[in-house]
Amino acid sequence: MSKGIISKDEDYSQWFNELVIKADMAxxxxxxxxMIIKPYGYSIxxxxxxxxxxxxxxxxxxNAYFPLLIPKSFFSKEASHVEGFAKECAVVTHYRLKxxxxxxxxxxxDAKLEEELIIRPTSETIIWNTYRGWIQSYRDLPILVNxxxxxxxxxxxxxxxxxxxEFLWQEGHTAHATAEEAIAETEQMLDVYADFAENWLAxxxxxxxxxxxxxxxxxxxxxxxxxxxxxxxxxxxGTSHFxxxxxxxxxxxKFTGKDNKLDYVWATSWGVSTRLIGALIMAHSDxxxxxxxPKLAPIQVVVVPIYKHDEELENITAYVNGLTEELMxxxxxxxxxKRDTHRPGAKFAEYELKGVPLRVAIGxxxxxxxxxxxxxxxxxxxxxxxxxGLADRIEQLLEEIQAxxxxxAFDFRAENITEVDSYDEFKRLLDEKPGFLSAHWDGTPETExxxxxxxxxxxxxxxxxxxxEAGHCMLTGKPSTQRVLFARAY
Amino acid sequence: MSKGIISKDEDYSQWFNELVIKADMAxxxxxxxxMIIKPYGYSIxxxxxxxxxxxxxxxxxxNAYFPLLIPKSFFSKEASHVEGFAKECAVVTHYRLKxxxxxxxxxxxDAKLEEELIIRPTSETIIWNTYRGWIQSYRDLPILVNxxxxxxxxxxxxxxxxxxxEFLWQEGHTAHATAEEAIAETEQMLDVYADFAENWLAxxxxxxxxxxxxxxxxxxxxxxxxxxxxxxxxxxxGTSHFxxxxxxxxxxxKFTGKDNKLDYVWATSWGVSTRLIGALIMAHSDxxxxxxxPKLAPIQVVVVPIYKHDEELENITAYVNGLTEELMxxxxxxxxxKRDTHRPGAKFAEYELKGVPLRVAIGxxxxxxxxxxxxxxxxxxxxxxxxxGLADRIEQLLEEIQAxxxxxAFDFRAENITEVDSYDEFKRLLDEKPGFLSAHWDGTPETExxxxxxxxxxxxxxxxxxxxEAGHCMLTGKPSTQRVLFARAY
Lengths: 490, 490
Fold this sequence. Notes:
2 copies of one chain form a homodimer. In chain A, 35% of the residues lie in helices and 29% in strands. The first copy, chain A, is α+β, with helices and mostly antiparallel strands. The first copy, chain A, has 3 domains: 12-70 and 124-284, BirA Bifunctional Protein, domain 2; 294-412, Anticodon-binding domain (Rossmann fold, 3-Layer(aba) Sandwich), CATH 3.40.50.800; 417-487, C-terminal domain of ProRS (Translation Initiation Factor IF3, 2-Layer Sandwich), CATH 3.30.110. In chain A, the strands form 6 sheets. In chain A, strands 3, 9, 10, 11, 12, 13, 16, 22, 23, 24, 25 and 26 form a 12-stranded mixed sheet that branches. Chain A has a 5-stranded mixed sheet with strand order 18-17-19-20-21, sandwiched between helices. Chain A has a 3-stranded antiparallel sheet with strand order 4-8-5. In chain A, helix 2 (39-58) crosses helix 6 (179-199). The longest helix of chain A is centred in the last third of the chain and has 26 residues, at 390-415. The first copy, chain A, starts with 11 loop residues before the first helix and ends with a strand. The mean pLDDT of chain A is 96. The interface between A and B is large, with 62 and 62 residues. Strand 5 of chain A pairs antiparallel with strand 5 (91-94) of chain B, so a sheet runs across the interface.
């Protein structure tokens, strides 16, 4: 059945845009580069938030809230940080509108701010300015704080969920007494993100570190998780930064150690965003619509009754009410779609488009036979199943679907990580069989930049626990001790 | 024990400010009028969000997210709306910073926006512009959407939680086919707010309607809940607006009805904010610190061990672990404060300051006797209780505390609602025994304004289901059919 969506093999980018719109996930707003997240899309974000928030709390973090607006002078204090974000900042300059002589609403020039304010693109500066007041001694450390917030980066080229001027995210900002502790925190949060990606989004990721060129502006080290989309492009799904003492020095945040000596505080920051919704869509969906992993699907099971007479519907309803109660005990969400304004076929198509993992159809014949028809979204297979023990069967199937979606993505990635030893081969594969390309590189920013300029491929990461292997840089032939992962990326 | 907080009888306003800081709830930020909500304060907001969000979902609402920035032209489309908010808008005019010749970071004048963008003070305009695309027919109605977001109103006089330039809130925006439905929604959400205030915040509220002068900018009718603080000032704790067809007309949102006729859509909006945290503090707390109703307290029970030797602590710990398990089954949160850096007395003072409803102290003698000492924060009473059945006793006490805090606030309000029949008496009471003053008013905006100018008292609301009673306006002597509630307010 056609949903009016272009095939992803024909135009992957267009397929994504149409799917986001048709599946009621989001739409563009009249504000350039900003999107409206519709209820169905937002409910996935809410599920992600709930899971991540628990993971953060289980690792000792608390939430707090810091101001949206950052004084320009703060923003400028850490040199590489402002360098990285200055070109994409929304700037507040006035605090009042007024009616002009013609009755038009205009900016009131009498209400010009003494100092311009920046809408946060990230909150390191305002937070480290605050931490100065919170930290005197080692007893005040560590500080383990997270913030759920909106941020703004004035992007020139935008794409829904993946790159928008405003987006929603969480940003963790922690303060520690030693570099070792801060690095351990950075790595712990990378593990949390990888766990979340693999076990909830069903998205296999490579954990690694960025090259200096690709680091967060102000970080000494940036760790990341990288995922592969179905078109062979990579997507950075989360980052965790070891910030060293850069922000503590910029904002003069010192503490007295156990040894009574004064030192600057060590910092980390880490974040994931609504971009993950884009990753979820791009990684698993197909030409018929979304394919959502059951653990994050807003509706896990939908029941569509098939009937002619009201009394048939009554029978079906009685059965579905019992099933609903059983599923609720298992924490499985179920929707019973009794609308009489839509035919069963239209409902099937709608839930396929929206990626509901399991569909249960029940007709009068089923009621006589004590059966239902179960249809899986991921494999598009159907089975006729007994009504007896159906809740258990559904629970089991949802687990199978979650595992299967992960396995499919895992196998796809395995097929699309290729070791490459020559630059010609590298360029050929980027066009013919894009994916992660594992290649030797001489370790210089110049070579990295040249490859990027010539091929649009970047070093996605140096995988953690990378195998050491003698080789030669594919571009310069200089010696190299390990392969790194290249790809074109979102 | 002195916490270094001024007495509330001496200076209520200063008491509030000091309490907010000392209890680690929040602090001012360097951005004028914006505050930093610290983890302890934010955890109360998280509890409020969880309860309200469930209430909204139980009444059929879904969450969504709309852009932070609103084009100035949208903002100007509803005349009284822009009138109401134009004077307190943060305006974004540029989207880039740059280095000038001297290396200073400055606004890049080449990156001036064609149209200025307003940071949302509320989202009616951007949302109704969006609803135009969502609504064609009565089948698309109702739309029941809520948003959790930050908003900004450039306030000249600010006070933490109660009035800040940026605040966190939820804003519901619903669309309906008929005025009746929209009014029913407006009233339903007022009931939800009143239920939340009374049963969770332990805060008795008066439900009522605003006079035209005090209505939300763009509303046909504004419903509110009004609470009384301990200094006799009123505080508006939530509002629910019937917007009529004003925004539908401003944004051309029409629908085809069942009768096939085209009509404008009917609207409501409703919101509560982090202001409720201010209300919670102001309504219940005392000179020793916060008094939190158990249902919203981040920590409901704290256990402080009193011991000299490590083996004593081991015994106590073993017992507390068992208690913790029992309380977790009852969904009661418990903190066991084993820190050896603080003495028991310091811990007692800290949890008193932070308003933890119940404190359990256990010493070696208690372990021998099978007892504990239980101390209530609200009444400051202590009891020695058997360890046997302690979880049940705690559960019961928490319920008693919740009820007692409510009753105390209810009795205080009952003592401070006074019927007044003369303007002299009215003015005298405002100074001598402030509270809600129930008085006759001639129903004109001019009289209302004059009373406000002369006394700083405003009409807080016309209570719902108000008793009809013939009388004379206390100021003009003109006839009146009902009393309304006046007060000085936050």
